[in-house]
Amino acid sequence: MNVRRGWIEREGEVAVIRQCALAGVARSGVDTRSTEEVISGWDRMLLGLIDAEYTR
């Protein structure tokens, strides 16, 4: 993982696009990381059950 991506604060006072420009990171990389973090343990369990049923 790029260390500079860790500097970006989604709820910061400065807009995410501006933070990305200042840190020299692509905004798409920040957006990708945020979608990965959104999946909760409950959602992962449900996805596993759906996958098991589908493959059965």
Compose a concise summary of this entry.
With 56 residues, the chain is mostly helical.
Structure description:
This protein has 56 residues and is an all-alpha fold. The protein has helices at 16-23, 27-38, 41-55. The protein has three helices and no strands.
- Write down the domain tally: 1
Radius of gyration, Cα only, in angstroms? 16 Å
* Percent in strands: under 5%
Helix content: 55-70%
Number of strands: 0
Helix count, DSSP H or I runs of 4 or more residues: 3
What is the overall shape? elongated
Order of helices and strands: HHH
Average pLDDT confidence is 80
Mind summarizing the main beta sheet?
none
Q: Segments where pLDDT lies below 50 for 5+ residues?
A: none
Distance between the termini: 35 Å
Structural class: mainly alpha
How would the blueprint of this fold be written?
Elements: H1 16-23, H2 27-38, H3 41-55
Task: Quickly list its features.
3 helices; mainly alpha; single chain; 56 residues
